[in-house]
Amino acid sequence: MGDQIQFIVEKLNQEPFRKNYNLISFDSLQPLQLLQLLSDVLGEIDPKHVVDIREELPEQTAKRMLNLLGILKYKPPGTVSDLSAFRQGLVTGSKTVIHPVLHWLLQRTSELRTRAYLARFLVKLEVPAEFLQDDTVADFNKQYEELMEAFKNLHKEHEQLKISGLSTAEIRRDIGAMEEEKGQLTKRVERLKKRVETVQNHQRMLEIARQLRIEKERQESLAQQKQEQKSQLFHAEQKLQRAQVQLKEMRQMVADSKPDSLMKKLEEEMNFNSYLLTEKTPREMESKKTSVYFLQKVVAEPAMTQADLTALESERDEVNAEINQLIEKRMIKYEPTDSKFSMYRQQASIISRKKEAKAEELQAAKEEMSSLERQMEQKSSQAHELEGSEVLTEDEYKQYVSKLRSKNTLYKKKRLEIAEITAEYGILQRTEELLRQRHEAIQQQLQATEEKKGISGYSYTQEELERVSAVKSEMDEVKGQTLDNMSEMVKKLNAMVAEKKASLAPVIKELRQLRQNCQELTQECEEKKIQYDSCAAGLETNRSALEQEVKGLLEECAQEESNYRYINCMKMSLEVQLQRAREEMKAYMSPDPQERRRAVREQYTRIILEQENLGKKLREKQKVVRESHGPNMKQMKMWQDFQQLMECKRECFLKQQNQAAIGQIIQEGGKDRLVL
């Protein structure tokens, strides 16, 4: 309790209260002063409670404080009976009630100030259900709840901004710096404008410079977008290639293996991973830890000189010599019974070393394979960028090789066929040569026969005549066909032209008439359009006027409807009051005393009588207090003076005891000196 009062006094002596209390003055406060102090603390939390309690009734003060403490979620200790005692103590200004409240309030003033601020906007008004049946009241209530939620969100954002570290002073400094920079820039711009105004066509040049700047910014943004899209495309291609490789591997595994082989591979991989996890990796970690420990130890030690190094090397040589001696002694003391165990140990050590070597080789092979896959992806991406075509995957390459093999077999077959045809061509060429030789021999015999008969050259002339006549007949046939075709074509064209002229003549007449009608209709359309525009303008003005009138009527209708609903609500409330008045009148006029006692009039009459009696008692008590106030104050002053007097006596007594003790010590010291 003393610590609690000490804390309250310290807080009240600080800002913003500045009460200048001490423990005695605070403990001697009257109940009315304690209530005023509690009201001041509550007023610091919520400005609406800055009230002089002498200007309001005690019931109002207690009700106001209890409402605010309920909003601040203060929980008084104890049960329901203790709660009633808490209310009574708050009304009377009891120290046992007010001191814990003050301690609780002063511990968390800033938090409670925020809670009281939020309570002004977040304490929901309870609207009776019969009023919520009205559409207008329900709409207002819904709008009220929506505004409450919006306030919650805004307050959360405000708190987050306060926590984010942006102080008002920093923002103001930044704003001031930016305003100064803005002023400098405006002055610079004005100077540049004055310089530019002397140049001819400066407006056009400024417009061109503005367009150039805009185009440059657009070019930069497009280049940045292009670079981002290229990087995205490159990453997507790499991802696609990795996915294709994984898909190919999975397909190969599915196509080339059976469930037994897959299980076997998985078991092998699981065994290898478990070996790495349980044996190899822990040993490597231990070795790394020991090496790190030794390195840290070396780093912690001071720098070593050459003499230290030589000493360490000599010590190392001595240790190696001792190890060799111990090995020799062990070999001398070698027992045959341990030969089998040593052999097994050697085999186990050899197998473990081989296992570690193979695991390291497998790990290195996997790392090499992953590095080669990465290199292959990089090379494929580079080839794709250089050539612009798709790089073949392994499956596509296999298909390509199989196609090449099939084409190679087909090529070999065709090559054999070409060889056979070439051989046959050689045979036919030889046959042709033989026949030509025979033909020349026959021609020579024929010429010799013609010379003998005196008609040399007859056969040649006959052949030439036959060939020329055949050519001439062919040319005549072609000419005749060409002339016939041309004459038929000319006839057809003339007929078609005549037909088209005959068919187009009425159409041309109609077209001329239609053109004339079109001109007339166009002129009439323009006139009608002018009339339509003028009519539309008039109708638009009328429509706007009617819309304004309709809008006013709708507003008036809404006002009348709201008035109707308000009157209806008032009517319903008046009916309820009338019904309550009838029931009250019925109960009051009832001959049954129990029924009459339940009437509101009787209840209020009893309450008024009780309150009047209570008022009389309180006035009498107030009169007694006023009469005894002067003597009581005088008595309290006397007790305070008495207390101060007793305090002075106690201090004097303590000083006297201290002086007596000091004098006794001095006398004892003097006696000791005399004895010596």
Automatic annotation (TrEMBL):
Gene Ontology BP annotations: cell differentiation; cilium assembly; intraciliary transport; spermatogenesis
Annotated ranges, domain IFT81 calponin homology: 3-126
Primary location class: cytoplasm
One Gene Ontology CC term in the entry: ciliary basal body
Localization per record: Cytoplasm, Cytoskeleton, Cilium basal body
InterPro entries per UniProt: IFT81 (IPR029600), IFT81_CH (IPR041146), IFT81_N_sf (IPR043016)
Coiled coil: 137-253, 309-389, 483-563
Taxonomic superkingdom: Eukaryota
GO molecular function: tubulin binding
Keywords: Acetylation, Cell projection, Cilium, Cilium biogenesis/degradation, Coiled coil, Cytoplasm, Cytoskeleton, Differentiation, Phosphoprotein, Spermatogenesis
Role, per record: Component of the intraflagellar transport (IFT) complex B: together with IFT74, forms a tubulin-binding module that specifically mediates transport of tubulin within the cilium. Binds tubulin via its CH (calponin-homology)-like region. Required for ciliogenesis. Required for proper regulation of SHH signaling. Plays an important role during spermatogenesis by modulating the assembly and elongation of the sperm flagella.
Recorded family membership: Belongs to the IFT81 family.
Record protein name field: Intraflagellar transport protein 81 homolog
Species the sequence originates in: Catharus fuscescens (Veery)
Name of the gene encoding the protein in the UniProt record: Ift81
